Amino acid sequence: MEFTLNTMTKLTHHTAAHLFNESLYDSKDLPANVNITPCNNIIFFTNNQAQLPDSEKVFLQNILKAVGLDLAEVVLINVLHDSVTWFAQVKQVYQAKNMIGFGITRQQIGLSVDLKGYQVTTVAGTQLLVGHDLSRIAEDKQKKMQLWNALKVMFGK
Fold first, then answer.
1. Model confidence, pTM
2. In this predicted model, what pLDDT tens digit does every residue of 69-79 receive, in sequence order?
3. Total number of domains constituting the chain
4. d(Cα 133, Cα 55) in Å, to the nearest integer?
5. Which structural domain, as residue segments, surrounds residue 117?
């Protein structure tokens, strides 16, 4: 069978089940026992470990405190380890208004728009800011200033 837009829309649930080896969900089809709390602020990061190292976590806490947030008020997503990492998925699931990416590429979160480092870009009604990974920013005064200036724009400080 040739797959065109026309034939893809005619796939039945049974046919789709044989084509895909993973469950595909629309957020309205999530199981009832999945409890997702909307969160306005999402932090994307890359790290070979599943969690942020303590030094980066402390630095991130200081960044968040400067804009009036706490680590408990954000969702941390490691694009190398978490399953929901694409911008559109995260926006839909968490209803996020602000997303910050440290050390990520636009491809890692499924975007085709050009993202400029340390500049707030609005994508589908969500503010998005990307910069270097946390450890690199922590070591570089100029990158800290670039981040702070962009955060002031994002959070109206």
1. 0.74
2. 999 899 988 88
3. 1
4. 12
5. 41-155
